[in-house]
Design goal:
This protein is mainly alpha-helical and 373 residues long. It has 2 domains: 53-140, no CATH class; 145-368, no CATH class. The chain contains 10 helices and 7 strands. The strands form 3 sheets. Strands 4-3-7 form a 3-stranded antiparallel β-sheet, covered by helices on one side. A two-stranded antiparallel sheet has the order 1-2.
């Protein structure tokens, strides 16, 4: 009888211990299960197809020329990384970064931008300010994919026109053939249908530039059709490229502007002076808006076409993640629309080169226009 209370207390303590142990074990198991579920969810999220990433990678610039594949198994052509900062001059191939997974020489790639890193190869809170200043001081003159494309297209144009010019010098009276028969009609078209009507008697001075800009845009537009296939580039869809061309047109227009042209801009003849207070600022704004429109038109049209074509292509993988049958069903429509957009882009490639050249010629013509008496 005397042992009953002790026995009861022992049973009670044992029950409490078991309950606590079960509670802790269950909590640990629940946390472990939750952590495993989160990891699985993250893994699924990582493996999920990202259409936006695919499109941006194909239309954007990069420090390597991607051919095919994804991740570590991808095949790409490394391009030279050339940079200068307070750390000195650096020159190496982009494969040292291993597609952005590693650092090299105090640099790394973040979203295809070259940034400086600390000794640990990362940016921590303590080093953030120092690294930001180092990043700002980086002069990146690397040969990126767009730069390589520009060098390739320029070399292609030089080869084409030098070979055509050489053929004309050897046989000036012989009928054109081969590459000559393709280039000559385009040259005559730009000279007779674009330069002469738009510029007037002084057109010959501007024909070399107009031909250069037409064929440069055309060849890069045609090369830009390749982004729907791995390994392509999108130079004419890069706003820096279109900005430089528009800026050259602006400089030529400004330098060759006659007295009548500038008088028309700052004080339009025959307009009352009170109205000039409103009209003159609009005319001055128009001088800068013209090259801006040139830049945006070419950039937007070429980029939009690539995005639409790639969006149709990406639909195959998006529906394929839902079910194999849906992916196969959508693939027929997606491929048909992608082919259609490719053919439409072929027309746009010629059209945008023509429009840029025509508007440039019209701006030159307006700048050279003399007053009528």
């Amino acid at each position: 009888m005397n042992n009953t209370p002790k026995t009861s207390l022992k049973h009670i303590l044992t029950a409490v211990f078991i309950a606590l142990f079960a509670s802790v074990s269950f909590t640990a198991f629940a946390e472990e299960t939750e952590h495993a579920t989160e990891q699985a969810t993250e893994a699924k999220t990582e493996k999920k197809f990202d259409a936006g990433k695919l499109i941006l990678e194909h239309i954007g610039d990069s420090h390597d020329w991607h051919i095919l594949g994804e991740g570590h198994s991808s095949v790409s052509l490394p391009l030279p990384v050339i940079a200068y900062s307070n750390r000195g001059f650096a020159c190496f191939l982009s494969n040292k970064f291993e597609h952005g997974h590693k650092t090299y020489g105090g640099y790394k790639l973040e979203e295809n931008h070259l940034v400086a890193v600390n000794e640990m190869g990362e940016v921590d809170a303590h080093e953030a300010t120092v690294n930001e200043e180092a990043t700002k001081s980086i002069i990146d003159i690397s040969i990126t994919k767009n730069v390589a494309t520009l060098l390739f297209s320029a070399s292609l144009l030089l080869w084409a026109f030098l070979s055509v010019a050489g053929a004309y010098k050897k046989n000036p009276n012989k009928a054109p053939k081969g590459l000559q028969s393709f280039v000559e009609p385009l040259i005559i078209f730009i000279r007779d249908e674009v330069a002469k009507p738009s510029i007037g008697a002084k057109y010959e001075k501007f024909v070399p530039y107009l031909l250069t800009v037409f064929f440069l845009i055309l060849i890069n537009n045609l090369l830009g059709l390749v982004p729907v296939i791995p390994g392509g580039a999108n130079l004419s869809g890069n706003i820096a490229f279109t900005m430089v061309l528009a800026l050259i047109t602006f400089v030529i227009t400004t330098v060759n502007g006659t007295k009548h042209y500038w008088h028309h801009v700052f004080a339009m003849p025959g307009v009352p002076k009170p109205v000039l207070l409103i009209l003159t600022p609009i005319e001055i704004l128009g001088v800068f808006l013209k090259p801006f429109v040139l830049m945006i038109r070419l950039f937007a049209n070429m980029t939009a076409g690539h995005i639409i074509a790639l969006s149709f292509f990406a639909m195959i993988f998006i529906f394929g993640e839902m079910s194999t049958g849906a992916g196969l069903g959508v693939s027929v429509v997606s491929v048909a629309f992608t082919v259609f957009m490719g053919l439409l882009e072929l027309l746009v490639a010629f059209l945008q080169a023509y429009v840029f050249t025509l508007l440039s010629a019209m701006y030159f013509g307006s700048a050279l226009e003399e007053g009528h008496h």
